[in-house]
Amino acid sequence: MKPAHIVHPLKPVYDKDSRILILGSFPSVKTREMGFFYGHPQNRYWKVLSALFEDSFPETVEERRAFLLRHHIAAWDVIYECDITGSSDASIKNVTPTDLQPILKAAPIRQIFVNGKTAEKMYKKYTEPLTGRSALCLPSTSPANAAWSLERLVEAWRVILDFSDEPG
């Protein structure tokens, strides 16, 4: 399989009430097919957030968008455009970083989080110099991060509640 040059196909999710920004690296093949963030059925992102916010699991794109906005979460990815083979973060090359200014200008973001080490590495390399803001790295919700159980992920991700308006 050879690398493909892909421009990020999704629009960010945010509004004027967003307090938390969670960034992935780049959408997987499954996510690109679904047309919304964390579309792979084995990715635990939605399970983790549902558990943290004690809310029902959002199934559809509309439910997922509403879930994020209801809990004041903005979502996007660190990379806007790159060469990638399938869904392999390790294959990412020729990166154009995402411009986060529209979100940061529109919403009072209290903290930026990155979902996993690849997002962290890309954020530090490309985005932090542009925003001047550091990001906290959370363990990846990807099925490839099998060493982390759902329970451990929920516990590690609990830190986001410190920056939300939700009771923790």
What does this structure look like?
The chain is of the alpha/beta class and 168 residues long. The protein has six helices and seven strands; from the N terminus they run E-E-H-H-H-E-E-E-H-E-H-E-H. It has a four-stranded parallel sheet with strand order 3-2-6-7. The protein has a three-stranded antiparallel sheet with strand order 1-4-5, with helices on one face. Helix 2 (45-52) packs across helix 6. The termini are far apart.
Briefly characterize the structure.
32% of the residues lie in helices and 20% in strands. The chain contains six helices and seven strands.
Task: Tell me which oligomeric state these chains represent.
Answer: single chain
Beta-strand proportion: 15-25%
Radius of gyration: 15 Å
User: Order of helices and strands, N to C?
Assistant: EEHHHEEEHEHEH
Give the strand order of the largest sheet, numbering strands 1, 2, ... along the chain.
Answer: 3-2-6-7
Low confidence ranges: none
Q: Report mean pLDDT, rounded to a whole number.
A: 94
Report the major sheet: 4 strands, parallel
Shape: globular
In terms of structural class, how would the helical and strand content be classed?
A: alpha/beta
Please work out how many helical segments DSSP would assign: 6
Task: List how many beta strands DSSP finds.
Answer: 7
Report the span from N to C terminus.
45 Å
Helical content, roughly?
25-40%
